[in-house]
Please model this.
Amino acid sequence: MATNLGPEKGYLRIATEEAFASTDLFPQYRKLFEQGDIKASDPGFGSLWGHYLFSESERAVAIRNKITDLDEMRIADMNATGIDIQVISLTSPGVQVFDAATANAVARDANDQLADAVKRHPDRFVGLAAAAPQDPQSAARELDRAVNELGLRGFILNSHTFGEYFSDQKFWPIFEACESLGVPVYLHPNTPPPGMIEPFKEVGLDGAVLGFGVETGLHLLRIITSGAFDRFPNLQIVVGHCGEALPFWMFRIDYMHAAMVKAGRHPQIKALRQKPSDYLKTNVYITTSGMSWEPVVQFVRDVVGADRVMYSMDYPYQFVAEEVDMYDNMSMRRDELKQFYQTNAERAFGFKAPSGE
Amino acid sequence: MATNLGPEKGYLRIATEEAFASTDLFPQYRKLFEQGDIKASDPGFGSLWGHYLFSESERAVAIRNKITDLDEMRIADMNATGIDIQVISLTSPGVQVFDAATANAVARDANDQLADAVKRHPDRFVGLAAAAPQDPQSAARELDRAVNELGLRGFILNSHTFGEYFSDQKFWPIFEACESLGVPVYLHPNTPPPGMIEPFKEVGLDGAVLGFGVETGLHLLRIITSGAFDRFPNLQIVVGHCGEALPFWMFRIDYMHAAMVKAGRHPQIKALRQKPSDYLKTNVYITTSGMSWEPVVQFVRDVVGADRVMYSMDYPYQFVAEEVDMYDNMSMRRDELKQFYQTNAERAFGFKAPSGE
Model:
């Protein structure tokens, strides 16, 4: 296994979609189940956390143990799998299932805990901030605090919030804050909302096996077609799982979007400054979480550009000791590997790896 | 433009996902709108056919004209775009929005009309049969008639039927009939059902731009994880749009499916004889409808095998005169082009192109 840490190998391995749970998060999630209506009001959350909070399966127990640790266990796992640096964020759906007051409080506390962990392990951890879309103005203020006072380097958005998406302009104060602060939005999967989930959930396909990707790809396309990147041209969104299938669909999306604009078919589909797919090359970074398979990684690098694709593992959900060996041995030059593992992440999140050159 | 027809170029161009509307279909669709409740009971159908039946946009008018023709206009368009043979099927959602009696009658009539057109133009047309999933036993009988008496070469399934999928064993008499008759199921897109469509439709993304692909990819994955291919190992399903993104997701689907089986997370997710992605290589053919973009076509050929990927245009929805030029000039040897354009289709649908070798 490739457990060689440090810059001697020519690059640092930075994993960019890594999860933690703050001390408040699981107790607050359990409260939602104890109140008894969460499985009806949010079947996706009920399916996902009804499993991971309560299952005694080996996988669920391991995830509960690993995800709450920000010290020895996590660093030992990083050392064992060759990860120099984790970019860490609050696990999905974060605070996006709470009332606004709870969401604000849990987000603030999670940001404090994560910033403290980064201070304890400045060479190993970079943190992204949680904030409550339920309250966009407070979220914008919390992001300012998290970046300027705590040193966090982005905003983690766990896809929909009560079935609403950032294509809705009411959320745009958060985009405005991120653009102004010079930090990206990490658009992370969530289970599909009640208005989408049933045909997935009834056969067990609502989670990472398919539903996550569909929900998150839809969210990103909604943001693109809303014109958000024309309004905030310097906004950068990071998206995992090799782009949640949008790189696969690029040609068809462009063709059908243009046809709909021409036919005036839907009031929400309007002309944009660029083709929809162009925004993947100018305003989106793509990470490889859960997709450690060279054909798809190379396909995405080919079609959106190697300067837009970077590594992530999705720890602890995807914790595969041999994973970086596959990546180390991809058909890439050393400088391309450095771009993929290190410099794209440094540029996307605006930090300099402590032991990098 | 590549308008050279005939075998002299080294292959025949067979387009495999081409649509027609029988004389009864649009009048019956209009009835659904006149009855007034279709937009509420099936918002996807309301969105799609509310546009194409009634819009005076250039695109909608052209599609209404072309799709109802099975003679001179269609053949002139084929000649103008270099298509030697069309594999034709009833346009989506076919009969799958009617009550069972109407569906059976419209399907039977459509099959008669299509078989007559094939008899008039035996060198240019191959037909697939419509049948009503609302009545699986009658559908199986109609498929027997369509194949053995009319000479049609497959079953067109326009994805969900009132929100139900062929992962449900109640539909498996139709799979059994297709396997027994030695003809494939063409799994064609439909708009997402009421339980999925809202987050797509509210922003105009429910159609070909994204919703079609999501709905159809989900349907195929539901069929795979249901164990249908273990029950009917010789069943072949043809799917368009370069595989509706399942080739992109192959690695992650396999990984998460195995993790769910191991954790016993969902009763519908069970061990299969093969990995989910293996069925794409043994029981699925993939066509390129609407995806005339070399990077994605080559990616799919690489990951599922060149013997599983074949050409389709999606006439008249995608009617791009220059399209076959792109395909003719892909980085493929002549024998690979023949496989892609001709012999894979001949094998999948079980016919021999009349003017082929």
The longest strand of chain A covers residues 14-20. Chain A touches chain B through 67 residues (CB under 8 Å). The longest helix of chain A spans residues 100-120.
